[in-house]
Structures are given as C-alpha cells and as structure tokens.
C-alpha cells in the first residue's frame, strides 16, 4: 500500500521537481518507508512506499522496465501465479514484487491485463516511447485515484490534498446532495470543484492532450427472486465458503505481520476464524467498544475458541470531539456518521501494536444486503406470491420506501431531511431539482444490491476505510471483495441472500453458533446520539462562532434555535460540513 502522485504538462513545459515532491510529501503517511521520483521533461511521477511484499530496495518506485515507468498503490494477490505465467513467456524478473508483475503483464497483454488481476489497485504507467499515460483503478474502488484535468495539465494523486495545491473550491452540487440525501461518491464528482475520481472498474488513457476513459469490468447480476431449494442452498454455500477461504488465503500473502478487525459480527468473525484455520498461529485482532454499542459478548465467543491475542479500544464523548477535526482532515470530504471514528480508533490501535496489514469484513453487506433493503425483497416476493411473510413496523416502513413511486420517495426524503428547513434559501433554490437526489425507486432486491455495490454505498465505505487505514500507515485487505466471490454471489437468485442465508449456512462449522445466528448488526458503531448530546455546548459554540463557514449553505440561527428538535443525523451533517470547510 502506498501513495502515488503525478504531473503531466500537456503543453510540453518541463515538470518542476519541487512541485511533484510537495505533492508526494502530502502523502507521507501512506508510505513512510521510502520515497521516489521520475521526472522527465513534461512528465513527473512520485511515490511513497509502505513496504509489504519484498521489503528490499528492489521494490523501490517509480519502477522502470522495458520503456515503461509505473507508480502503483495496492496489492495484486495472485501475483505469484501471474509471475509464473509471464516467466513461461520469457520475462525475467529482478524483484519479488507485484509491481514488476504489473509492468510485465501490461507489456504482454496491454489493458487486458486488468482482467487477470485479483486485488486492489490504483496505478499510472508512463510509456516512454509512445508518450502515453495509462491509469487504472480496481474493480470496486478499494484504492483511490483522483485527478484534475484541463487544457494545460493532468494531475493525479491517491488523495485529494495534493491536488488542492492547484485548485481548492467547494463543489456546491455535491454539498447539496450530502445535506439533503446523505449522498456522496455516486459519480466521478467530489466535494471539490473540477477534482474528479476515476470510477471503479475503469482505465484512463492520456495522449496528445486527449483523455479517454473506458470500462474494463462490469458486474452482472441475476435479476430473479428464484425458488428456494435446500439442495441448492448446500451447493451454493459450499462454493461460497471455498471462494471465501481462497480469498483469505491469497490475502495472507505478506512479508510483514498481519492482523484483523473483529467487530463480533458475522463478516469479521468469518475472516478471523478462516485465518485461524489456515495459518494456525496466534493472530492479533482489534476491536472497538463503547457504552450502548458493546459487542464484547460476541467477540469473546470467538476469542474463547481460537488462538487470538485480542486488543480493545474505547472512547468518550470528550475524546470524540477532540479528535473529530483530525478525522475530518483525514477523510478529506464530509462523511455520513461517527462510525468512521470507531474505525479510525481501531486503526490507530493496530498501528500502536506494529501491524502493517489488517484484514476486514468490508463488502459483505453489499453482497447480501442491509436490513433496510428488506423492503425491496418484500416488494418482489409479494408481487410473485412466493413467501408467507409477516410484517412489523420496521419491515413495513422499509417496504414502502422501495414500493412507492419515485416522486413520492423523493418527496418523503425531502420532508425527512428538511424538517424545519435549515438550508440557506438561495442555496436550496439553486440546487433542489438536481438529478441524483432520489436514488431509491421501485427496484427489486437484486437491483438494490447492485446499486449498493456499484454506486455510493460501497464506494463511500471503501473511501472511509482507505483514509482511516492509510492515515495510520496500514494496508487494509478485504476478502469479501475478491471479484470471483462477488461475481458468484451476484449470479445467484435473491432468495438465497436475504438475511445472509447463504453466508450463515456456509459458516455453520466455522464460527460459534451464537455469532452465526445473531440478527442484530453493529459493525464499527458509536453511541452517536449520546456523544452529540454530551457535546451540546461545543456544538452550540461551533454554530455561534463569528467565523462560521457554512452560512452559504446552512441557516445557523435556525439550527441554534431548534437545537433540541433537530434530527441528529441532520445535525451531524451540519457539524461535519462546518468542520470540513474549516479544514479545507
């Protein structure tokens, strides 16, 4: 895991070394082990290295081979198998890195090499002969790639901060989507005007001032509800467990110590238990707890059965408020909830214990669905009369969310978020009819899952994970996002996914029954409501401040007047936006 940055002057001006060095310097936390540059005429590439595979100097980047120069962030987990394939074709390797594998794979197969990679990546390859820049991002966007492009220059980086050296202006449309519908990362746009992200599953080619972006991967999905069969459930669960186990096995390839996040839920518990099965060594796990969101009861179920050296971290309302600006700066864009802070604390704990690689369960919910997506399943099942389901208030509420016409959903979402209408009138008037506000409409369960993994849901979570881990110089690896596993699960009918039925069946002999059958879910949760109430004075002072930055977007006097009535999720977004504007 690393940090990359680059400058490509399209008008042929020479690149200033000090400029690239400054960009790369802002990424030092992503790669504290080494720094490197390639500067040649109008192209400049920079790299910060976090050494994971082949810790020697042979892994130094930028790496040059046969007229190609690469800067790369990520891991190609099947690099050993690809290396053997390339060696059979006559390629001679001088390092044990996956970086060199990428270079020779690109040399041999061109852009088609992307389909062979099993991993996470963001990289840029400069072809010295063709004067062409080729950039790519992994299938699901685990690794970030941001860029700024105009007639004169193309700039890219692993984070937004280096690009702010050139332009720093809030993107009002993105702010509106965030404030009114909690939307972010559902397109190429960011919270900064003209700074884009290369979307997942895409590559970018830049030559002679012409920029081309295209897809190399598109997730397919089974649209059907299906009919339940015990025999098929057993078959599918065996395949699922085999794929998950192989995914974990690949992600244990490392020349440094590996740890795991453990929340006590189904997903992280499965990973920890598979590591125990595969490695048979005492592993380290890292967990967060707080009052009202304490999962130690379930975590201890795992700890008692496996050979684990476990670590816990907690926090308080006071510490949360003290750290909040740091987390906002780390994340670079406003975020949805304080759960990000719990993950941030876990990453800090892992760093304190000298861990460089952490496995995490991110992505599993996007494969099988969140509780709120039950509505689309009910919609589908009722229309097809497949299941005698009982309704309760929660299910009915979410059912209506997916069953109502798009216009009604849009209206209700607006009513929910607006409340007493805390947005600046001019700001709301300018953007209230922008496309993108209503993401939920009359869609079935499979479509809801597809939207979640290809649009804002997963993208947003992966951004949080990347920033939190890399702020602490840790590489986060996500076994549930092995593309073979994702493709398999999305090929199945919905009936085997609801309530994580398939996953629970597959894990019967692997994890404790108490964990396997639990229905509640916390993940990286915090007592957000209590923390915000305990920080009422700090929040009030924030909105009373003479240098309040959000007045263009929020009516702070209205917020203060109704501080006791305002919905806490709304209040959180207002706080987050204000702190973000102060940091950036």
Question: Which descriptors apply to this entry?
Answer:
42% helix, 584 residues, 17 strands, alpha+beta, six-stranded antiparallel beta sheet, 16% strand, Rossmann fold, Glutamine Phosphoribosylpyrophosphate, subunit 1, domain 1
Layout of helices and strands:
Blueprint: E1 2-9, H1 17-25, E2 34-40, E3 43-49, E4 63-65, E5 68-76, H2 79-88, H3 98-109, E6 119-127, E7 132-137, E8 146-149, E9 153-157, H4 172-181, E10 195-197, E11 202-207, E12 210-215, H5 230-250, E13 258-261, H6 266-279, E14 283-288, H7 296-305, E15 308-313, H8 317-331, H9 339-352, E16 357-359, H10 364-368, H11 374-384, H12 393-403, H13 406-418, H14 425-431, H15 445-454, H16 456-470, E17 475-477, H17 483-490, H18 501-506, H19 513-516, H20 528-534, H21 536-544, H22 556-561, H23 568-583
Helix pairs in contact: 2-3, 5-17, 8-20, 8-23, 9-16, 11-12, 15-16
Description:
- There is one protein chain.
- The protein has 584 residues and is an alpha+beta fold.
- Among the domains are: 2-145 and 198-215, Aminohydrolase, N-terminal nucleophile (Ntn) domain (Glutamine Phosphoribosylpyrophosphate, subunit 1, domain 1); 230-369 and 445-516, Rossmann fold (3-Layer(aba) Sandwich).
- The chain is built from 23 helices and 17 strands.
- The strands form three sheets. The protein has a six-stranded antiparallel sheet, with helices on one face. Strands 4-5-6-7-11-12 form a six-stranded antiparallel sheet.
- Strand 11 and strand 12 form a beta hairpin.
- Helix 8 (317-331) crosses helix 20 (528-534), helix 8 packs across helix 23 (568-583) and helix 11 packs across helix 12.
- The protein is globular and about 65 Å long.
- It starts with a strand and ends with a helix.
- The model is unreliable at 380-420 and 436-442 (pLDDT under 50).
């Amino acid at each position: 895991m690393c940090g990359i940055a680059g400058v490509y002057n399209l008008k042929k001006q020479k690149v200033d070394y000090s400029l690239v060095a400054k960009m790369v310097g802002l990424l030092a936390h992503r790669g504290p082990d080494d720094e490197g540059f390639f500067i040649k005429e109008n192209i400049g590439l920079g790299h910060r290295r976090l050494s994971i595979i082949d810790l020697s100097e042979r892994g130094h980047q930028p790496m040059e081979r046969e007229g190609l120069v690469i800067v790369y962030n990520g891991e190609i987990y099947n690099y050993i198998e690809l290396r053997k394939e390339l060696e059979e074709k006559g390629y001679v390797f001088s390092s044990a890195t996956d970086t060199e594998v990428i270079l020779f794979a690109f040399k041999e197969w061109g852009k088609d090499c992307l389909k062979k990679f099993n991993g996470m990546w963001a990289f840029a390859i400069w072809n010295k002969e063709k004067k062409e820049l080729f950039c790519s991002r992994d299938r699901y966007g685990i690794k970030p790639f941001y860029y700024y492009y105009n007639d004169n220059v193309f700039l890219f980086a692993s984070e937004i901060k280096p690009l702010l050296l050139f332009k720093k202006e809030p993107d009002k449309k993105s702010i509106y989507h965030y404030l009114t519908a909690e939307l972010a990362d559902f397109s190429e746009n960011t919270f900064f005007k003209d700074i884009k992200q290369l979307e997942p599953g895409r590559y970018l080619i830049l030559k002679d001032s012409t920029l081309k972006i295209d897809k190399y991967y598109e997730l397919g999905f089974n649209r059907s509800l299906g009919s339940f069969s015990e025999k098929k459930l057993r078959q599918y669960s065996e395949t699922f467990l085999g794929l998950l186990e192989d995914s974990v096995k690949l992600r244990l390839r490392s020349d440094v110590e590996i740890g795991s996040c453990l929340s006590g839920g189904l997903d992280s518990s499965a990973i920890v238990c598979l590591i125990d099965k595969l490695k048979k060594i005492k592993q380290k796990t890292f967990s967060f707890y707080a009052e009202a969101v304490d999962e130690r009861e379930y975590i201890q179920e795992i700890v008692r059965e496996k050979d684990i050296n476990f670590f816990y971290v907690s926090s308080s309302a006071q510490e949360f408020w003290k750290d909040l600006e740091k987390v906002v700066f780390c994340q670079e864009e406003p975020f949805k909830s304080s759960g990000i802070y719990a993950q941030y604390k876990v990453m800090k704990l892992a760093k304190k214990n000298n861990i460089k690689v952490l496995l995490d369960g991110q992505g599993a919910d996007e494969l099988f669905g969140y509780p709120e997506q039950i509505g689309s399943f009910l919609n589908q099942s009722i229309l097809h009369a497949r299941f005698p389901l009982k309704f309760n208030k929660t299910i009915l509420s979410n059912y209506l969310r997916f069953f109502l016409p798009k216009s009604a959903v849009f209206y209700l979402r607006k009513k929910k978020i607006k409340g007493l209408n805390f947005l600046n009138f001019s700001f709301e008037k300018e953007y209230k009819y922008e496309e993108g506000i209503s993401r939920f409409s009359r869609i079935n369960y499979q479509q809801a899952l597809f939207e979640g993994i290809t649009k804002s849901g997963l993208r947003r979570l992966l951004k949080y994970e990347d920033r939190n881990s890399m702020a602490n110089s840790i590489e986060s690896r996500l076994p549930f996002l092995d593309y073979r596993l994702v493709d398999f699960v999305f090929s199945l009918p919905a009936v085997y996914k609801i309530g994580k039925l398939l996953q629970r069946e597959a894990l019967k002999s692997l994890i404790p029954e108490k964990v396997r059958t639990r229905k509640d879910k916390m993940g990286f949760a915090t007592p957000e409501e209590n923390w915000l109430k305990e920080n009422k004075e700090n929040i009030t002072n924030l909105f009373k401040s003479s240098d309040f930055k959000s007045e263009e977007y929020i009516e702070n006097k209205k917020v203060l007047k109704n501080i006791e009535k305002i919905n806490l999720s709304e209040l959180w977004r207002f706080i987050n936006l204000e702190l973000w504007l102060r940091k950036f």
